[in-house]
Amino acid sequence: MYFSPEFLQNTLYIVAAILILFILIVVGYKFKHNIKIWDKSLTLAMIVLANTLYSILSGFFDMPYELSSIITGGLSLVAFGYIVVIIWDLYKQKKTIKNK
């Protein structure tokens, strides 16, 4: 299966727009209900957004392959780490609620 570079670049624009919209909605909801705005899930969303924006910029500028690999790979590893931390926190919360 082949995806053209234009299709992949346009898909990145859509993903970035949806992610930015989602972040704004969540921040607005948290602000309205006086909930702590910056947490692990927002950090994860910002890391994924940074990775997406870097990928979009690499479509306009010719970045060295090694630099792109290090940045996107590093951000992906950090994002995976945050996913593990969020799942672990949810598990601990469930266990605490179950023990009460």
How are the elements arranged and paired?
Elements: H1 5-32, H2 40-60, H3 65-99
Helix pairs in contact: 1-2, 2-3
Average pLDDT works out at 86
Structural class: mainly alpha
The number of distinct helices, counting runs of at least 4 residues, comes to: 3
The tally of strands reads: 0
SSE sequence, one letter per element: HHH
Rg (C-alpha, Å): 17 Å
**Which strand-content bin applies to the residues?**
under 5%
Intertermini distance:
52 Å
- Helicity range: over 70%
Q: Using the alpha-carbon principal axes, give the shape.
A: elongated
Unreliable segments (pLDDT under 50, ≥5 consecutive)? Answer: none
Largest sheet: none
How is this structure best described in words?
Helix content is 84%, strand content 0%. The model has no long low-confidence stretch (mean pLDDT 86). The chain has three helices and no strands. The chain is elongated and about 55 Å long. By secondary structure, it is mostly helical. Keywords: Membrane, Transmembrane, Transmembrane helix. The chain crosses the membrane at residues 12-29, 41-61, 67-91.
List its traits.
100 residues, transmembrane helix, transmembrane, membrane, mainly alpha, elongated
Summary, kept brief:
The chain is mainly α and 100 residues long. It has three helices and no strands.
